[in-house]
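Exercise 7.
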Amino acid sequence: MLPSIEWDKDKVIMIDQRKLPKEEVYVECKDSNQVAEAIEKMIIRGAPAIGVAAAYGVALGLLNVKKEENLDEEFNRIILRLGKTRPTAHNLFWALERMKETFDKNRRLSLSWIKQKMIQEAQDIERRDIKTNKKIGSWGKSLLKDGQSILTYCNTGALATAGYGTALGVIRAACHEGKGIHVFAAETRPFLQGARLTCWELGREKILVTLITDNMAGHLMQEGEISLVITGADRIARNGDTANKIGTYTLAVLAKEHGLPFYIVAPLNTVDFNLTGGGEIKIEERNPQEVREIGDQCLALPSVNVKNPAFDITPSRFISAIITEKGIVRPPYGKNLEEMREKK
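Solution. The predicted structure, written as tokens, is:
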């Protein structure tokens, strides 16, 4: 498994996910603004990976501070800049909050020690993400049976996290246990994360995968070719309503119609317990050119109006279970997510 991001002394190295699967290109970020731009431009993407990147962005930003009298002002500027990159992914804000807590806790130390503490905290966030994803896989694999055909959406593997993956991590864990799983990967317009990234990851792991266009899903369900649907999440309200890549809601409705399980896979830091429901989740609207073009290929008139929301909301009534690192959560989500959060 290739790491989506890693720390190297005084810089952060990321695989450029925009170039995959044609090229494996690595980008070096040497300051916090470069990290912020990498998140915005989707050089790195996937809610857990964005959280790790943001943490490293804070550490990099402070590494470049030369005078202690500028420290508080610079720290606040860095946090504000990174917090504006992707508004929907809750892991981003969770990671920034952890970095704030570490900064406040160590503020009285010397500048060099503060810098070291911030690097250590970012590295801990990365390690924790990998450990969390493996725990998620251990819980989730029990829901997958030998011989099933599983529809997944967007990319939820090692590329979308610090390593291993969320929904793809569950699939990976089941396959490593010897279960014969066939994955249908929906292409995921407009950025094609399913076609470009999920198929690339599964191909490298020799997991059987078939690529479909997004609008084939209903037909395959109707024909009995899909056993269940499993996706990731970018933010989950405390009632279980889930924001995920645009098109997820459509798959959830189709799964319900055809009596198929629909599973969300996410670490508990994806749950925003401050939000009562999905209507409170801010949906990111992205560049219209992502719809008008694919790469350099024009698909529509340059002047045509475009709507390009990056995410949609799947109401909790369509979700069979939410798979977390502490266990599998079933309805009622308001009560059971809270209990899972408190579980040791």
